# Entry
Amino acid sequence: MSRMLIWNSEKTRAREDFTRRSFLSVGSVALAGLTLPNLLRAEQLQGGGSTHRSIIMVYLSGGIAHQDTVDLKPNAPADVRGEFSPISTAVPGIQISEHLPRLAKVMDRLIVLRSIVGLRDEHTSWQNLTGYPMDNARRDGRPNVGGVVSNLQGLAKPLAPAAVDLFPTMKHTPYNSGGAGVLGRQFDPVKADGARLNVMKLKDISKSRLLDRKKLLDALSAKRRESDAEFRAFDTYQQQAIDVLTSSKVIEALDVEREESQTLERYGRGSSKHLGDGAPLWNDQLLMARRLVEAGVRCVTVAYGFWDTHGNNFGHLKTHLPTFDQGLSALVEDLYQRGLDQHVTLLVWGEFGRTPKINSKAGRDHWARVNSALLAGGGMPTGQVIGSTDAQAGEAKDRPIDYRDVLATVYHNLGIDSSVLIRDRSEIPIPILPAGSRPIPELV
# Structure
């Protein structure tokens, strides 16, 4: 019996199943118009619409130099400490780079993790998004955080997808995000870049044509609807599915020009042009992320900047850190000023740190032994640094934090126990994260 139609004997199972479903790909819903109505139906049965928890994950493609941003070593030798000096922040005793003055002012609303370990030396986003190295994640079809959230929590609001992926398509393919993997493509985050955004705008299928297809479905099932109460009720959710496709809710959230000019100035604009083979340094995406979670999206992933500084590390950072500083500090301010800090978790990190010793090209190479990250919101106790590195920022000195524990913390803030097993599309139980991953005690 098809799971697309909810019969009386399957109502309980259907409610449990479809409430975990995310917004399906626009094309498949437009053509079939079936699964999304069931999702909307189940959401209403469970009384959706309550305050939801969200995650904004900002992935720093290429791996930013931790010792030149949030873990400076002013007493190290010159070929280790580099060109930058530390400055004081809003929290006594915590210092960060002189090129991050705005973030320094909001340090009381931030958490700095300085001792992240367990990462591999690989230029990919897969570890950050799934908790597994890329080869393992691809081989086993590990779902990324957006896919997990879509599967387990579904829609927070009727006309907003559970997860939106703002990653642009980057030249270095492993930087690009995966999807829901073995959970099934129906749980993939909605891609909102370039051509895919045009699909969301119904560029290739007009609203009138979409409505014509709805009429066809109505005509084919007319007799059934006359005698079947389930089908009569189904019509309401069929219409809601059409409403999702023709709604401007998500499109409007992505349109930052709707913000006041002062907000745009506060965030700074950056540029949509890609840097190197990585992501653009585009602050509009940070503002889009805030607008999307306010619109009801549970998970937003952003690829931001390019930080693979094998050469001219300090020149690159001097040029790009001011934009980074402006955009991220504005996002942090917004989380708190707009009352989002208890429900939205912000995580900013890259795939690894950089070498303690500066190379002959005035750059820093890959360094997977230790990395740093920034967190904010999520109801967490902020204004603190967790962990430290040795005198050269090359090894975790105390309180090593496994990178998968960072993801476990994010899941915890979303209301998801990452130690439980979830079922893939073949109903086989799989772990969300590797065994032993636990939320960071100081933050939960």
